[in-house]
Every structure is written in structure tokens, then in C-alpha cells.
Amino acid sequence: MRIIRHPRRKKLKGSVVALGTFDGVHRGHQKVIKSAVRYAKRIKAASLAITFDPHPQQLIVPERGLKLLTTLAEREDLFCRLGVDGVVVIVFNKRVQGLSYGAFVEKYLVKKLGVRQVFVGFDYAFGKGRKGGLGHLRQLGKKFGFGVSVIPPVSSDHHAIKSGMIREQVSRGEFGRAVRRLGHPYQVSGKVVRGSGRGRSLGFPTANLKTDPHKLVPAHGVYAGRVGGRKCAVNIGARPTFGADSSLVEVHILGFKGDLRGKTLGVELLKRLRDEIQFSDVEDLKEQIKRDIDQVKRL
Length: 299
Fold this sequence. Notes:
- By secondary structure, this protein is of the alpha/beta class.
- The chain folds into two domains: 2-160, HUPs (Rossmann fold, 3-Layer(aba) Sandwich), CATH 3.40.50; 185-298, Elongation Factor Tu (Ef-tu), domain 3 (Beta Barrel), CATH 2.40.30.
- It has helices at 27-43, 56-60, 72-81, 94-97, 101-112, 134-144, 163-172, 175-182, 198-202, 282-298; strands at 2-5, 16-19, 47-53, 86-91, 117-121, 147-151, 155-156, 159-160, 186-193, 207-211, 221-227, 230-237, 248-253, 264-274.
- It has a six-stranded mixed β-sheet, with helices on both faces. It has a six-stranded antiparallel barrel with strand order 9-10-13-12-11-14. Strands 7-8 form a two-stranded antiparallel ribbon.
- The longest helix is centred in the N-terminal third of the chain and has 17 residues, at 27-43.
- The two termini are 42 Å apart.
């Protein structure tokens, strides 16, 4: 277990925790976390968000090649924006995977944190083989002296919002629907690496991001976003006009002229503007980029 952001350590005992993996920190997750934060303030206790890294499915079913809506750093940032006092990361490995639901609760929630109240989502399951359900958690709460609050689902289009649904929408290019379910812009972060200089030669210099290999990069296309309060146009794709075949995340920050190479950049994607297009003429491409940038300015 790692504590990556916390109040004074002695305050961790008797804390109120929001428990889950919380990939995406979508509107349903936010309801769980905000409820925990409000309750903690009311009883004057520390509020903690507990997450797992790596994502359990990456270890249990690696053949799925799960891509994440949020890296650990992005999750931490979103947790803290929601007002938690601390973020606790449980390192998910074979040992943790093999813990029964009772052993998991006793080891982490009781002995390490001495929790007073646990907040979970309506479909929470835990322990080896996900055999622990809400009834088991309540029974363990009575045994060890902590309360359990189960938060009902948040629905969109008559369906409970879940991370898997949002992953599918981000992958298919249904970006507007995905962002509405997330309840916040889609984050893409990475180190700025040297590119081919193609954007600069066209008059639109870009920062090329090297993203986390486990991060779900949205469907190819052009997006409007922002970086540190500045508007930006983001191209995600393979640059078919130039015959490229490897996916890139290229960020053009409006009005910015500095050198970002080697820096880590966090981009918030707000809206998908269009599909990726192959142009027969570079001048046509430049005109389209100008139109894209005009759209970004108007947002």
C-alpha cells in the first residue's frame, strides 16, 4: 500500500474512505467520492480515496489488453479536485489478488487504516474471484466496527454509467457522449518528444506527446482542448496525407511559441471536431487546419 497524497499520517486512523478502482472518475464515481468527503467533514475525519494500481483486470485477464481512461496520476488529480484529504494506492499483485474478501478488509481497511465509514458504488465486488459483495461488506463492518454506505447508480440514457461503457464510446469516436458521462474533460498526458517538424513546416507547430502505453487514446480525429488554461487543437491519428502509419498525439497550443520538448504536458480534451481526413493537396490540409483552429477559438 502506498499513500501518495495524505494529511498527517496519524489522521489516517478513523478515516472515511471511498473504495473502488475508479478508472475514469466518472459521474458515478464522483457521487461516491463526494458523499465520502461530505460525511468526513460532518464527523471531522479525514477523507480518503482508495484505488488500485495496476488495474486488477490488467493482472487477472492480461489477454484483454485493457486500456485505461485515466492513468494513476490523472486519477490522483481528479480525486484531489473532488476534495479528498488523501489518496491511497493499493498495489495490485498476485498476493492481493489471492486475498479472500474477509482478509482484504481486515488487512487494509481495519488494520492499516482503522476506517470508520466505507463508501462504495452499487455494484461493488471485492476479494479473490470478486466473491465479496455488499452483504459481505456490511457483515464485516458489523464485525470490525465500521459503517458501510452504498451509493446508487448515476444513469445516462437509462443506463447506469460504467467505465466500460465510456471506454467503448471513446474508442468509437462518440466523444461527446463519453465526456457527458465522465462529467469532466478527457485527459491525455505525456512527455513531449521530438517530432518530424511537419506541423512547424505547415505553420502550425505542435508538441508531440508520448503517452502511457496503457492509456486509452481516443479515436483518430481532431479535438478541441486546453493546456494550462490555453486553448489548443489536438490531432490524434496517423497523418494519412503524408503516408504515415503510426498514431500520434499532436498538440497545437494557440498563441504559444516556446519549446516544450522534454516537459510533461497535460491536455484536457473538450470536444471532437471531425474525423481524420486524407488530403490530396497540402494546401487543402492547411486550409482545413485553419478552419479547425477557428472552431477552437470560438469554443
